Amino acid sequence: MLRAVLLRLSEQRAIGRLLERLRLTRRLVRRFVAGTRAEDAFAVIERVNAEGLLAAITYLGENVRGAATARAAAETYVELLDEVKRRNLACLPSLKLTQLGLDLSESLCLENLKRILEQASAAGTRVWIDMESTAYTERTLAIYERLRSRFPNVACVIQAYLRRSEADVKRLIALGATVRLCKGAYREPPDLAFADKRQVDASYARLQDLLLSPDAIERGVYPAFATHDERLIQRAANRARQLGIAPDRFEIQMLDGIRHDLHAQIRGQGLRLRVLVSYGEAWYGFFVRRLAERPANLLFLFKHLFRP
Ligand SMILES: Cc1cc2nc3c(=O)[nH]c(=O)nc-3n(C[C@H](O)[C@H](O)[C@H](O)COP(=O)(O)OP(=O)(O)OC[C@H]3O[C@@H](n4cnc5c(N)ncnc54)[C@H](O)[C@@H]3O)c2cc1C
User: Fold this and answer.
1) What does the DSSP assignment read for 208-236?
2) Residue ranges of the domains in the chain?
3) Which residues, judged by CB distance below 6 Å to any ligand atom, belong to the binding site of ligand 1?
4) Block means of pLDDT (10 residues each) for the chain, length 308 residues?
């Protein structure tokens, strides 16, 4: 119930614009967002890399309404790739198609995405395309499929809460795709997504088994298990060990600010762990989705709000 209310709030751009102006809220957001400038994100990424972890960087933004904003976002990612190279960081971009203009036109979005992929290709870097709400699922996968042969460095995301995901995972395994598996962070109707957490977790486990199978790995699939769910992370580690899948054939991904206590344990097992670091002014939707994932985070918010 609270999750649904928060997810509805995350879609209210007017509230976002208001909150973005308040200095106080900005402070609260820092747990999940490195800051407003790329420099803030790079400071965190350097620390993450120094701890022996891989990183991903997201310049926050979604559902942009002007072509110039979409082009500027693409330009920012090109500059980030340059900076990653200059600083010699183990870091890749993770971006949203609606930030590159998918709501405006598919050709604009493709033009922007190709620019980033070309730059990343030259640097030998992968680019992860995030998955947004179901309004974009099919279009996002179609764009991924279309670009894969020209850009083998492109990667996509599957959300375990969607009823369609098992079919999508099978479709991606046949392609030998690079796939992040997450639970899913948007407000979706029950005919499209499992509403019950146990069903979502069970779906995640099923899809994890498909992606981490000898058949999938032989086809070249590279799965990334994006979750802070200790049980599912351990499940992936155990399964890979049992099947003799080498630890460099898959990775675990987590968001900066969540379950840092698990990092050492995951690395200690010789697993690859990537931490996604976000920055930018447009943090509202991302932040409220983090609150919705764990309503206990609201306590953290209130504690800060009422602190003298
Ligand atoms: C690297 C990465 C990339 C992602 N990309 C996408 C994407 O492209 N599309 C998409 O829809 N979703 C994406 N997500 C979000 C994802 O779908 C989930 O909403 C999110 O990861 C929470 O689910 P969980 O797997 O951690 O499991 P949960 O069962 O929600 O959480 C497991 C445990 O993790 C901790 N935890 C989880 N969330 C929080 C939080 N917000 N604050 C504090 N503790 C928390 C708690 O201890 C909780 O018990 C991504 C997540 C990660 C880690």
Assistant:
1) HHHHTSHHHHHTT-EEEEE---HHHHHHH
2) 33-282
3) 130-131, 157, 159, 182-186, 226-229, 253-255, 258-259, 276, 290, 293-294, 297
4) 76 68 66 92 98 97 96 98 98 98 98 98 97 98 97 98 98 98 95 96 98 97 98 98 97 96 96 97 84 75 59
Cα–Cα distance, 92 to 107 (Å, whole number): 24
Does domain 33-282 fall under CATH 3.20.20.220? My reply is yes
CA of 108 to the centre of ligand 1 (A): 30
Q: Whose CA is closest to atom 25 on ligand 1?
A: 227
**Catalytic (active site) residue 168:** no
Q: In whole angstroms, give the CA distance from residue 225 to residue 221.
A: 13
pLDDT at 76: 98
Rg (CA), the chain: 18
pLDDT digits (tens, 9 = 90+) for 232-262: 999 999 999 999 999 999 999 999 999 999 9
Evaluate whether 232 touches 205 at the Cβ level (below 8 Å). yes
30 is a catalytic site residue = no
Which distant-in-sequence residues (6+ apart) come within 8 Å of 204 by Cβ?
160, 181, 183, 227, 229, 232
Other CB atoms within a 10 A radius of the CB of residue 110 amount to 18
pLDDT of the residue at 271: 97
Among 261, 228, 255, 283, residue whose Cα is nearest residue 28: 283
How far is the centre of ligand 1, averaged over its atoms, from the C-alpha of 227 (Å)?
A: 5
CA angle 198, 277, 252 (to 5 degrees): 45
What is residue 67's predicted lDDT score, i.e. its pLDDT?
A: 98
Q: Which of 195, 58, 177, 185 is nearest to 131 (CA)?
A: 185
If you measure from the C-alpha of residue 261 to the centroid of ligand 1, how many angstroms do you get, rounded to a whole number?
A: 15
pLDDT at 308: 47
3-state secondary structure of 170: helix
